[in-house]
Amino acid sequence: MAGYEIRTMTQEDIPQIVAIERLVFPTPWSAAAFRSELEDNGMALYLILTAAADPATVLAYGGLWKIFDEGHITNVAVHPAHQGKKLGRFLIHAMIAWAWANGISHVTLEVRPGNQRAIALYKSVGFQEAGLRPGYYEDTREDALIMWLHKEKWGKRYKVKDGLRTKLKNGARDGLRTKPRREAGRRGGISLGSGD
Predict the structure, then answer these.
(1) Is residue 182 part of a domain?
(2) Residue 183: enclosing H or E segment and its boundaries?
(3) Which of 41, 109, 39 has its CA nearest to residue 70?
(4) 3-state SS class at 128
(5) CB neighbours (10 Å) of residue 1?
(6) I need a labelling partner for 88 at 20 to 30 A (CA). Which of 48, 49, 103, 127 fits?
(7) Which residues are known to be catalytic?
(8) CA 171, CA 85: separation in Å to the nearest integer?
């Protein structure tokens, strides 16, 4: 299996992120939204997954907000040309590992109920369904399925089993940069697009 690296997102990554957003999400975030997340949201962490042989090309990315002892996954996407290689799973494992190492005890996300591939992925790493958020998605007024993952229940069962290794770059504590907390507004939910 090819080698992959995970690092924090930079401003230079945004054009590639926006291109992936447009390919996988019905209502993609704009470049301005990502710039704001990186520059203004002190609670945000965004990770990028690249091939070790080509670290400038983004294959997948994910975002997480740290709010006290909770993490909220804002988005996860894998470029369609790289779906089906377990990169989404690998990226989510890296996000969860960062969360646990940085004092987060619970991680949540929203996903469209019709996105069965994403739901299966989240369940495979230990997320459990916890309810519905009515009319959550602004584009369709579709409900969102709320899922939670709790550190005390995660245990040793879930580990990266794919033989992939991370090289976390561009950061300080635990290989990633942390920022001071700030209040955040609701930006939208999570959907994995058409594949993991």
Answers:
(1) no
(2) none
(3) 109
(4) strand
(5) 9
(6) 103
(7) 110, 122
(8) 26
